[in-house]
Specification:
alpha+beta; three-stranded mixed β-sheet; two-stranded antiparallel sheet; globular
Length: 96
């Protein structure tokens, strides 16, 4: 199973064994993205994952996925953030 609950001290935490993408706001309120592709994944796989993510976001907020894609397209045309991508998963391989 990819998720496991473990008690650490007084808290119960969920451990993710095989993450594909983890995004979070750091202490400076900047979005950080950790990408951990399996060895056989390519950018095409992540394109499919991105589509699934858009669909999940639309469902979460109760909007049609076209509404989310509209914002994705706006961001693609005019980036509003700089990227801080952690490439730890690529330390043993070279990818472009």
């Amino acid at each position: 199973m990819a998720l496991k609950t473990k008690k650490i001290g007084n808290q119960e935490v969920t451990l993710v064994k095989t993450p594909l993408v983890i995004m979070f706001l750091n202490d400076d309120n900047k979005l950080v993205c950790h990408i951990h592709p399996p060895s056989d994944y390519t950018y095409e796989h992540y394109g499919l994952i991105t589509c699934d993510l858009v669909r999940h976001i639309a469902m979460m907020f109760g909007v049609h996925e076209d509404a989310v894609w509209e914002w994705v397209d706006k961001e693609r045309k005019r980036h509003t953030t700089n990227l801080e991508t952690v490439h730890e998963a690529f330390s043993t391989t070279t990818r472009n």
